[in-house]
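Internal QA ticket QA-208
Title: Verify multi-chain structure generation after dependency bump
Assignee: T.L.

Test input:
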Amino acid sequence: EVQLVESGGGLVQPGGSLRLSCAASGFTFSTFWMTWVRQAPGKGLEWVASIKQDGTDKKYVDSVKARFTISRDNAKNSLYLQMDSLSAEDTAVYYCARNGRVDSWGQGTLVTVSS
Amino acid sequence: DVVMTQSPLSLPVSLGQPASISCRSSQSLVHSDGNTYLTWFQQRPGQSPRRLIYKVSNRDSGVPDRFSGSGSGTDFTLKISRVEAEDVGVYYCMQGLNWPLTFGQGTKLEIK
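Actual output:
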């Protein structure tokens, strides 16, 4: 069974940084693109970033380019999202998802940017 | 960017009645590999999204057969043949053809 468990969310001040992690199990992690999707409170889904199997190709939504960095460690079956220069608009539940086209989802981790 | 437009945004349905959600894309979702990358997700209240349908009409394992997807090119539909109480939630379409991946606004299904 595919399992994706996010961690690292919390309250951070505007301009601050946070690193999200996603622990994957139940599938061969190294053979899948991986993705982060976010959902602001009461709002819809927004794709944030995706990373290729070997980490050599990364895609970002324009609003996070140069601020967020997606990475992975295939030896640890883990996906990461380094988030810098955070603003209130980044407040959301962040979901880890398998595949570039998104098939399985984690339970999400809440990031709140507020002073 | 490919814009995904869903309608209606709110869908009150009586139990046992059919429901239909439309999703239109601003450009064709047909890939050069011949596949059409249109996906439907369900998000029940307080839960993570769950994939229901991929490549227009392929149902995921465990998805009841009352859910069906159809369409082509830029025009797609998710149908529920007989709505049950557990179907309450928000339904999203998503295109997987081009970066950035984009979602529809979501359609909130409620029981009338």
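Spot checks passed. Strands of chain A lie at 3-7, 10-12, 18-25, 34-39, 45-51, 58-60, 68-73, 78-83, 92-98, 109-113.
Status: verified.
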